[in-house]
Known about the structure:
Layout: E1 7-12, H1 16-24, E2 31-35, H2 43-60, E3 64-68, H3 79-87, E4 90-91, H4 97-102, H5 107-111, E5 117-120, H6 122-137, H7 142-147, E6 154-159, H8 164-174, E7 180-185, H9 189-204
Helix pairs in contact: 6-8
Amino acid sequence: MSGKSKVYLVSCSVLKEEIEQLVKQGSLDAELVFVSKYFHVDYELLEKNLRKVLEQTLKCFHGKVVLVYGDLCLGQNNEMKKIAEEYGVVKVDAVNCIDCQLGGKGKFLEADPEHNLMFMGPGMIGFFKRMKEKMRDEGVDEAAFANLFSGIKGIVLLDTCGNADKCKDELEKSGIGLRVLETRKIGLENVKQVLLEAIEKATSS
Length: 205
């Protein structure tokens, strides 16, 4: 990216494994700033921390900032797009993190039109495991946790980082209680394309 200003990705840590691999293999030239995926349980908490990170990044670094969050990550009313506009940053063209892994532009909605599958990449497994532990600590029983997934047929595991066996093992230990129906070895190409398109938009503006 010589001759261009440095790019900073402000991303949910749910995509940390994929993004770090892309940088390591030389497919992505960007500085990385991750916001904890565990804020996702509370829109207000996520917005507060995301604003803090964006303000700090824009204040301390001279370069283009790309927001790696989906349209729905702060609610159903374009809240995330509004934040991107407010701070003058480019956001990836994706509905959510799963959409990033599938190639963005709403492919997630096409992949599960009946909304009865749970797509799961490496970063989401830890999220649900932590969520279950937190709910248990707050006195929520197994039946109530299982009820969160009522109507879900099972999991479609997205193998983005080539570690499907490890992911399956972690899923079994997570206590989510859903069967893996299918494993899709999709690799990093989709995430890379979504990020590069947003970076191109940011650096050409």
